[in-house]
Design brief:
4 copies of one chain form a homotetramer. With 296 residues, chain A is α/β, with parallel strands linked by helices. In chain A, 52% of the residues lie in helices and 14% in strands. The first copy, chain A, has 2 domains: 5-164, Rossmann fold (3-Layer(aba) Sandwich); 171-290, N-(1-d-carboxylethyl)-l-norvaline Dehydrogenase, domain 2, CATH 1.10.1040. A 6-stranded parallel β-sheet of chain A has the order 3-2-1-4-5-6, sandwiched between helices. A 3-stranded mixed β-sheet of chain A has the order 7-8-9. In chain A, α8 links the parallel β8 and β9 (157-164).
């Protein structure tokens, strides 16, 4: 049976363009957001409003959420008027938030007892990728469920990989944040050294991006950071939340990650400056700050 | 006056394919290497042998070197039977090695007194880029000299940027090593966390590479590291040499680079294991080692 | 009214000798421990057994606890058959465990509603100090309560400082763990460098201890570590628990502590080796491990 | 033959009180300093002036130097008008500077060829210990020479340990700087956390100093740092010089020292603030800076 009716809960920076892409792909999309005003642009594109996650679930075959953290996911899935309350047997719930792998497994188990199957499917690619429909999506859960939902996921992303059983998607997302965080530090220290050596950082980025030290962060965020544009793709406060999940997961398995621990501390430098709502490229200013003179 | 005759000194992992690309581009190429046997493959492609850097210089309009470190460059340029001894007035010497910016400026000044103009033009892109002719080349020196030599550089690389005056090329190369070193650590910690979480690192790399945490290192070196291929593109011992140049340059300008300092220490873990001649992807094993049990 | 009857809950490595010192100082001491067998040595010294923390509280004017973590303290103080159930109005509860400052404040507030006054009074000085009665005790709470309880605290420690209101004792204990953790790393790296340089680490410790780089850790734990004695004064797993409290507290106030974050990661190297129950001096082996060859 | 005539070269913050203590102990002391004005206070105490290190050597049985770095020691010992030029056969030269172990061994070997025996004897204990005559002195060289010079060393220090052959004294001094540097970071992060938690850092130091996290740095330098006294006992720029010797020595033996590398970077934060001439307790401000807001 083909999937035609899809639900979406959480219409933030990421969720809104993801839901829009589902509409463009021809799905009937039912949406809900805690702050109702954010639903309006989607309704104008043809989405159907719901009054709760439960209503989203009852109106659809597959529901998707993209919210901030573990308690949010637990509330959306299992709380009052949550997905579990409205879902018919066989409903599939796909969570695209970034949460602890352990929490994802736990929510999946509790939903399973109530007849709902869950995929954990966090994403990477920023607001740019969400809008362009080119997200990387890392999916944990059972293979047949993944196969059935693939057309839905393909409406939102380009590289969609089934990485293992329940929780594996979140584990891979944590690996993604490890790599992303350290790539951001790479960008920040390279820019700091260029400035110290009297070299134009923009030209440095241009040539370094083209060689073996290139990265998505260097190509996409370094130019913003250099021209002083710190508007968030992805907010520092959220990156910190994710890095704490990383370090908790690493602690549980006794896996030392000294680089990730350092990145975490440097993002705290940014937060101490009252810039937790800036984009992650603000780490450039944290590293710059280390070499600053008081009063300058 | 067009450049037709080019010299090449130092036919190692990088230099040999770079010289070959000059031949392919139609230049007449005169070569010299400390270990003569390494010249043979180039001679078979049509290169002309010389008995010293001085002979290379006297036979050409532009000479290029690609050697290991500062003393090597000083010897090639200014030592007995060096470039300065053989060069006619107006000769241009392009050094593609990675050395301290200060040394590059110093050698340029001393060559200038003897009628030779120098560009510092270190490269990035590994053996892969050297062979494919797709290197990124970061060039320091005077604009007209850069413009005149562009056809020569274009035979070896794809992204060729004039980044500033004498020494600026080396400064940018150090920025490149900062970014590359931390991107390698990003790769190593992401793989360590995947393994700890029981996720297949190859699938993790596949999906992470496609998103905002992607990098050249992740796409090109992670697959080698995961399948246990530690053959060098770029050797750990050379990376350590470069990171020491980075930390010296940063110390001179009082620029704290805590991430680069950590990467440097972790490459020492690799060296302590007797693996300084492995490729830089061996940092994956250093991070893995942190979570290893004695005897395991 | 003088304090004559004192209770003690939690007779572990620290608690048992602390309770014994209360007996030696002439207090009537009522004790309880989750594992009853651990009460026997205290009973032989004259302690009175109780069947629960509530019974301890009802038999005494001041009760003390020394347990592992926040949930333990919450259970002892506020759980079924806990201190709050047995305490008469005016009872004082002194917690010597190391827990989050926020939890200490929260438990104090909830006890206050039930007529019990609380001091947070974590200790430093290890099993050695607990036995000798020379502990440093850092106390948070109201001044008059501190003054009234001083004779009790003086039976267990030597340096007893009232550091501020409720929670301040725990905050200072976290500062203590920051300093202690980094002093341990200092010891470990000094020993590693001595070994690498072919110098006898015992002689190094002897002379370094006597100068400006001396510390309690160097004088007391380095000799144990050098002769391979890793029996716990203070266990690695507990140190890790405390360092996580440190990093949580620092994150809450956006206070970057890069050194403490690194120490935390290095203790994970020890834990990865299956040595979480060793004493903290095992960090010497973690740093040694960084320079070890596989198979050696 | 008893030692009666002793020379001293380098009358800085450390050297001047050390020479004064030799005079107090009854030795005839001949002195030389590059800036002659600094000799005056010693001459008033009864020292004899010399016009060069060579004159110092020719007038004495044992000469001592306390200068800044390797080139200074090489110049004093082996340069024109140096120790080697004036020394009679059997003369002993004791260097109390902190330099690379390798340089110490090299200078000893070259002096040996010219009939002079050398001990490397760096010290710890700061200006306080130099004045009080309570320095820790770590000595490398031959046992009989050490035994013969012990009375001289005892006039300047209290804990005097023969730690091994030529160079071993310097190696131990580097261990001392590792421990001292990390103990300073311990102090800085503990104070930062106290301030963030709203606790009086002076009371924190008082109680923490008395327990297992105590150290010389905490007892002696933390009070200065807290009251804003950054006058040097030991200057940041010199500490940086020593940490670079540490990291070079560690690199040579492939000994990863991640904590020392971090301390080195944090002292660069101090230097970036133009405070290289402050005392090492200024690291407290570097860590405080990490949590500072621009403009505050």
């Amino acid at each position: 049976m083909a999937i035609e009716r899809v639900g979406f809960v959480g219409l933030g920076i990421m969720g809104a363009p993801m839901a829009a892409n589902l509409l463009k792909a021809g799905f009937q999309v039912t949406v809900w957001n805690r702050t109702p005003a954010r639903m309006t642009p989607l309704l104008e594109l043809g989405a159907i409003p719901a009054a709760s996650p439960a209503e989203v679930a009852s109106a659809t075959q597959v529901s998707i959420s993209c919210v901030t953290n573990s308690p949010d996911v637990e509330a959306v899935a299992l709380g009052p008027a949550g997905i579990a309350e409205g879902a018919a047997p066989g409903h599939v719930y796909i969570d695209c938030s970034t949460i602890a792998p352990e929490t994802a497994r736990d929510v999946a188990r509790r939903l399973h007892e109530r007849g709902v199957t869950m995929l954990d499917a966090p994403v990477s690619g920023g607001d740019v990728g969400a809008t362009a429909g080119t997200l990387a999506i890392m999916v944990g859960g059972e293979s047949p469920v993944f196969d059935a939902c693939l057309p839905v996921l393909q409406a939102m992303g380009k590289t969609i990989i089934h990485v293992g059983p329940s929780g594996a998607g979140q584990a891979v997302k944590l690996c993604n944040q490890v790599a992303g965080g350290l790539n951001l530090l790479a960008m920040a220290e390279a820019i700091a050294l260029a400035r110290a050596a009297g070299v134009d950082p923009a030209r440095m980025i241009e040539v370094v991006s083209a060689g073996a030290a290139g990265s998505w962060m260097l190509s996409n965020l370094a130019p913003r950071a250099i021209r002083g544009d710190f508007a968030p793709g992805f907010m520092v406060d959220l990156m910190q939340k994710d890095l704490r999940l990383v370090l908790d997961e690493a602690a549980r398995s006794h896996t030392p990650l000294p680089g990730s621990a350092l990145v975490n501390q440097l993002f705290q430098v940014v937060q101490a400056q009252g810039r937790g709502a800036d984009g992650t490229q603000a780490i450039v200013d944290a590293v710059r700050w280390l070499a600053a003179r008081p009063g300058s």
